[in-house]
């Protein structure tokens, strides 16, 4: 399945990932699910042979994702869920 679920606070409109019980920005407890299909890799590194990227989604969410393929900092990537783990790959 393509994309990840990020959570939109219904009070302040800021998104978070992973899901939280309380919005870290305003304290609201009500969230709506929103799909995030792509983002921009801002940093890429590796650990024990596995690529890892910080991926910026919109203006308010940065998440860690496993890298599939030749992702470099500045790359536009697509996101997918691999059994609960975010994965970033070149579009």
Please tag this protein with its features:
elongated, single chain, five-stranded mixed beta barrel, three-stranded antiparallel sheet, 91 residues, mainly beta, OB fold (Dihydrolipoamide Acetyltransferase, E2P)
What does this structure look like?
The model has no long low-confidence stretch (mean pLDDT about 95). Strands 4-5-6-8-7 form a five-stranded mixed barrel. A three-stranded antiparallel β-sheet has the order 2-1-3, with no helix packed on it. It is elongated and about 40 Å long. The protein contains no helices and eight strands. Helices cover about 0% and strands about 60% of the residues. It has strands at about 5-10, 15, 30-35, 40-45, 50-55, 60-70, 75-80, 85-90. The protein is an all-beta fold. The protein has one domain (about 5-90): OB fold (Dihydrolipoamide Acetyltransferase, E2P).
Blueprint (SSEs and pairs):
Elements: E1 4-9, E2 15-16, E3 31-36, E4 38-47, E5 50-57, E6 61-68, E7 76-82, E8 85-90
Parallel strand pairs: 6-8
Antiparallel strand pairs: 1-2, 1-3, 4-5, 4-7, 5-6, 7-8
């Amino acid at each position: 399945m393509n994309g990840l679920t990020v959570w939109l606070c219904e009070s302040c409109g800021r998104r978070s990932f992973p899901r939280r019980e309380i919005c870290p920005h305003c304290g609201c407890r009500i969230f709506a699910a929103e799909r995030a299909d792509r983002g921009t890799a801002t940093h890429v590194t590796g650990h024990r042979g596995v690529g890892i990227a910080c991926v910026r989604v919109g203006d308010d969410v940065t998440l860690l994702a496993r890298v599939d393929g030749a992702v470099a900092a500045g790359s536009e990537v697509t996101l997918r869920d691999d059994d609960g783990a975010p994965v970033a790959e070149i579009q």
